[in-house]
Design a protein that fits this description.
43% of the residues lie in helices and 19% in strands. It is α/β, with parallel strands linked by helices. Strands 11-12-13-10-9-14-15 form a 7-stranded parallel β-sheet, with helices on both faces. The chain has a 6-stranded parallel β-sheet with strand order 1-6-5-4-7-8, sandwiched between helices. Strands 2-3-18 form a 3-stranded antiparallel β-sheet, with no helix packed on it. A hairpin with a 2-residue loop joins strand 2 and strand 3. The chain is globular and about 70 Å long. The chain starts with a helix and ends in a 6-residue tail after the last strand. Bound molecules: nicotinamide-adenine-dinucleotide (NAD). The site of nicotinamide-adenine-dinucleotide has 25 residues, from helix 9 and helix 10. This is Aldehyde dehydrogenase (NAD) family protein.
Length: 467
């Protein structure tokens, strides 16, 4: 039998045994990138068994390897630039900040606290333990941030992860997965803790969701994919869409509120799911608010005709945003309307009624409608309606604790930011850790390592109560 024929036979046998032939035959390591989904999942399962043998301190070190690699200046710039170029979404400088915060502020092993109880019957501990292989579906809007954030959290939790990135972020995702695996391998960590397929597609995502070796599904994206994983019959974590409203009342520091709103709503061209998407301002201060917004990077479209032209330009027939305008700059969008501005303009603002399409739809572009209302109670009511029960993120500028409390209770948002830009809710200039998977629908909230773990109990009878 010649060598080629022998390899074919070996391949056939391995394939029947559902083992991955290419790696075994050539011992070639492609840093987590596989031709087919089954091979990616099988490799992830093998890696998870090895990871499970490692101590929690070692897992934490693996997470630190990812942090260090991503934070190297060249790497940070490369993935940020590539993400903007490939997806044609967002701003390079803001992607750098988001990737940096994902690497620095995603919690490590300190998140996995053990609960212990002792008494006359001995000792009980409950610990956060791995699920095993996790399938994670990631969005175009935060392609690299979500990969970094999920990889750290999931590996610290003892899990491995098979990613299903958006096809429009394929190349940058491949580059980042390879980068993280390469650094991990050099450190001596198990291979293939982070995997994906060469050609992400809906078919591959479906294969991932139905594979019994994948024990937990995580979807970060719009309503369709969140509903899909929630109907999969598996344990699933859903991080879905928002439409964050901002309320500004007469007690707020109006100039600061204007600066904060422009900063938050223009951050990464408004694609973060937490970014300010519409404003409800009380009549007595709305002119002053707009005046200060215009002094700080906002361009106001005044004419009703032009506002309708803008809406038509960026919206599909079904009301959803046109993909080609998602995450584009204010300057780019204005140019399409024949309005030419310089780079200091980061946000388009316009006065609209409460029911305007730009208010009610999550547009994911730097267009911020402002609705004037007679008092703060109405503003809170309208904010509640515009948020559509997503319970995702809300922002309020006020010094009235009673009204702040009223808004917090009414909207039940996972993130409620007071007197700051929205991004302070994910640890950028605000207290607390970061996440790029905000799991409102399934309740894990600001996800971290423990969100991706199972709680298991261990009991020792009669011993180890040492009080
Ligand atoms: P999207 O829903 O179009 O895509 C998200 C992911 O789901 C992608 O990987 C995509 O390939 C996959 N997907 C979509 N439809 C699919 C289908 N029919 N079958 C299989 N896979 C499918 O969202 P997007 O445009 O990439 O991201 C923006 C949306 O995500 C916004 O609504 C935003 O609010 C939301 N988002 C939420 C969070 C959060 O943490 N809650 C974070 C980022 C983005």
């Amino acid at each position: 039998m010649n060598a080629e024929l022998l390899q074919d036979v070996v391949r056939q046998v391995l394939s029947e045994m559902k083992l991955e032939s290419s790696n075994i035959l050539s011992n070639e390591y492609n840093y987590g990138i596989f031709d087919d989904m089954e091979a990616a999942i099988n490799a992830s399962e093998t890696a998870q068994r090895k990871l499970f043998e490692c101590s929690v301190q070692q897992r934490n070190e693996f997470a630190n390897v990812i942090r260090r690699e991503v934070l190297k200046k060249d790497n940070l710039e490369m993935i940020s630039r590539d993400a903007v170029e490939e997806t044609e979404i967002g701003r390079f400088e803001d992607k750098i900040l988001k990737n940096k915060v994902a690497a620095e502020k995603t919690p490590g092993m300190e998140d996995l606290t053990t609960r212990a109880l002792t008494g006359k019957d001995g000792l009980m501990i409950e610990e956060y333990c791995p699920f095993g292989v996790i399938g994670s579906i990631t969005p175009t809007t935060n392609p690299t941030e979500t990969l970094i954030n999920n990889s750290i959290s999931m590996i610290v939790g003892g899990n491995t992860v098979v990613f299903s990135p958006h096809p429009r972020a394929k190349n940058v995702s491949i580059k980042l997965v390879k980068m993280m695996n390469k650094a991990l391998e050099e450190y001596g960590a198990p291979r293939n803790m982070i995997t994906m397929v060469k050609e992400p597609s809906i078919e591959n995502t479906n294969l991932m969701m139905s594979n019994p070796k994948v024990k937990l599904l995580v979807a970060t994206g719009g309503p369709f994919i969140v509903n899909t994983v929630l109907s999969s019959g598996k344990k699933a974590i859903g991080a879905g869409a928002g439409n964050p409203p901002v309320v500004v009342d007469e007690t707020a520091d109006i100039e600061k509120a204007a600066i904060d709103i422009v900063s938050g709503a223009s951050f990464d061209n408004n694609v973060p799911c937490i970014a300010e998407k519409e404003v409800f301002a009380v009549d007595s201060i709305s002119d002053m608010l707009i005046y200060h917004m215009k002094k700080n990077g906002a361009y106001e479209i005044v004419s009703q005709d032009m506002i309708e032209k803008l809406d038509k330009l960026v919206s599909q027939e079904n009301g959803k945003p046109k993909t080609e305008f998602v995450g584009k700059s204010a300057k780019y969008i204005l140019e399409k309307l024949g309005i030419y501005v310089d780079d200091s303009i980061r946000l388009i603002i316009c006065r609209t009624s409460k029911n305007h399409h730009l208010v009610q739809e999550e547009m994911l572009m730097p267009i911020l409608p402002i609705v004037s209302v007679s008092d703060v109670d109405i503003a809170i009511e309208y904010a509640y309606e515009a948020e559509h029960g997503n319970r995702h993120t809300a922002i309020m500028h006020s010094k009235n604790v009673e009204k702040l409390s009223k808004m917090a209770k009414k909207l039940e948002a996972t993130i409620f930011v007071k007197n700051a830009p929205s991004y302070s809710g994910i640890g950028v200039g605000g207290e607390g850790h970061t996440t790029f998977t905000i799991a409102g629908p399934t309740g894990e909230g600001i996800t971290s390592a423990k969100s991706f773990c199972r709680i298991r109990r261990c009991v020792m009878h009669d011993s180890f109560s040492i009080r």
